[in-house]
Amino acid sequence: MPDHPPRATAGASRQQGRSAAGAMRHGPGRVLVAVYAVLGLSATVRGTYQVLFRFSEAPLAYLLSLFAGLVYVVATAALVRATPRAWRVALVAVIVELVGVLAVGTLTVLDAADFPDGTVWGEYGRDYGWVPLVLPLLGLAWLWRTRPARQGER
Length: 154
Fold this sequence. Notes:
The chain has 154 residues and is mostly helical. 71% of the residues lie in helices and 0% in strands. The longest helix is centred in the first third of the chain and has 27 residues, at 27-53.
């Protein structure tokens, strides 16, 4: 017996990939990816500049901003791809994003002295119009809507 799936399953998998890819090219999927891309670019550029030129002023805040930017970049890249593996990578990235914004947001509210300068996730994303607080919730909802079919489901 061969170790590969039957043709019908492989075809269904390709069809699933096409429909997920199509969802990202139109409507809410396109907007979600665009917001992730803009936030990823802005946070990564900001964090990189801060780490390179102002690191001694607020190292924790600047490293967290750079980390947040990289999480957004990974989420963007994974959301654009329409494979089950990319979906799992996007899920992990969005969960890390949610945990990060809640943890860093809480820390910046409770102990602002450790954060002498703002971060992307500081005060739950206040510097970014609270988009970092809302975006992972929208991302999780989108991922739930576009989740890959389980083996045997059609």
